[in-house]
TrEMBL record:
Organism domain of life: Bacteria
Entry protein name: Enoyl-[acyl-carrier-protein] reductase [NADH]
CDD domains: ENR_SDR (cd05372)
Family from the record: Belongs to the short-chain dehydrogenases/reductases (SDR) family. FabI subfamily.
EC numbers on record: 1.3.1.9
Organism whose genome encodes this protein: Paenibacillus agricola
Pathway where it operates: Lipid metabolism
GO molecular function: oxidoreductase activity
InterPro entries reported for this sequence: Enoyl-ACP_Rdtase_NADH, NAD(P)-bd_dom_sf, SDR_fam
Keywords carried by this UniProt record: Fatty acid biosynthesis, Fatty acid metabolism, Lipid biosynthesis, Lipid metabolism, NAD, Oxidoreductase
Catalytic activity: a 2,3-saturated acyl-[ACP] + NAD(+) = a (2E)-enoyl-[ACP] + NADH + H(+)
């Protein structure tokens, strides 16, 4: 097959089920010929991830809980063995305690703040650190963020602060890794009903407000994010790094 990503090896982290944004990204990348390595967080999701990966050609499935450095080390070693060269990394991982995603941000606990930042922001740095040395032919790294990084949004709370750290990390990583021909960007997606979104209180009212106010008058479809990820992973975006690209049907540009 001669696609935009033929001959490219891409690591996708963050598939939990067929609603995961990472899964939509995988489908877009596979449609253009990418060979994909998937990771799963733990045994609870392993079976589901293996089943999904099995529906695409050229895939491998490996474990990686991003809070454990040794698991990221083993992942890098296995990828080096299996792929030799890596061309892309998709980071689509976040977590905060449910109780921190409602009520007031001012009530955030020390533990909850640290955990949300560890999994949702630091993990990008931890993974990029071990993967860029495998990108010997140049590479593209991307992560997933949300408007709550820039605006104080009801119930998003500590996750918004973690996303702000993630977006700043994108810029610092981009500045570091450009010299190795590695680009680092983020997609800021509009709200999409996924497992992670279930944790956010009143998610339905957020979707309704987007339908009313977004210039395109509709919510974000997961395939729209997948196709932008395809652009970011391909040579078509070779001049873009350190950028946050909104895929939200224009919602973020609208005032009252
Ligand atoms: N759904 C939305 O509305 C929306 C909007 C903008 C950004 N995002 C972001 O998109 C990304 C993907 O979320 P999603 O909506 O597809 O939900 P999802 O629940 O399908 O994906 C979240 C993933 O994070 C993984 N994860 C959590 N803790 C982990 C750990 N310790 N180690 C390894 N993996 C871990 C989970 O296994 C899961 O695969 C997240 O960063 C999320 O914040 C989501």
């Amino acid at each position: 097959m001669n696609g935009l990503l033929s001959g490219k090896n891409i690591l996708i982290m963050g598939v939990a089920n067929d609603r995961s944004i990472a899964w939509a990204i995988a489908q877009s990348l596979a449609s253009q010929g990418a060979a994909i390595a998937f990771t799963y967080e733990n045994e609870r999701v392993e079976e589901r991830v293996r089943k999904l990966a099995g529906t695409l050609p050229n895939t491998v499935v490996l474990p990686c809980n991003v809070t454990v450095d040794t698991e990221i080390d083993s992942l890098a070693a296995t990828l080096k063995e299996q792929f030799g060269v890596l061309h892309g990394l998709v980071h689509s991982i976040a977590f905060a305690k449910t109780e921190e995603l409602e009520g007031l941000f001012v009530d955030t606990s020390r533990d909850g703040f640290a955990l949300a930042h560890d999994i949702s922001a630091y993990s990008l740095v931890a993974v990029a650190q071990r993967m860029y040395p495998l990108m010997t032919e140049g590479g593209s790294i991307m992560t997933m963020t949300y408007l709550g990084a820039e605006r104080a949004m009801k119930n998003y709370n500590v996750m918004g602060v973690a996303k702000a750290a993630l977006e700043a990390s994108v810029r610092y990583l981009a500045n570091d890794l450009g010299q190795f021909n590695v680009r680092v960007n983020a997609i800021s997606a509009g709200p999409i009903r996924t497992l992670a979104a279930k944790g956010i209180k009143d998610f339905n009212s957020i979707l309704r407000s987007v339908e009313e106010k977004a210039p395109m008058r509709r919510t974000t479809e997961v395939a729209e994010v997948g196709d932008t990820a395809l652009f970011l992973m391909s040579h078509l975006s070779r001049g873009i790094t350190g950028e946050i690209i909104f895929v939200d049907n224009g919602y973020h540009i609208v005032g009252v």
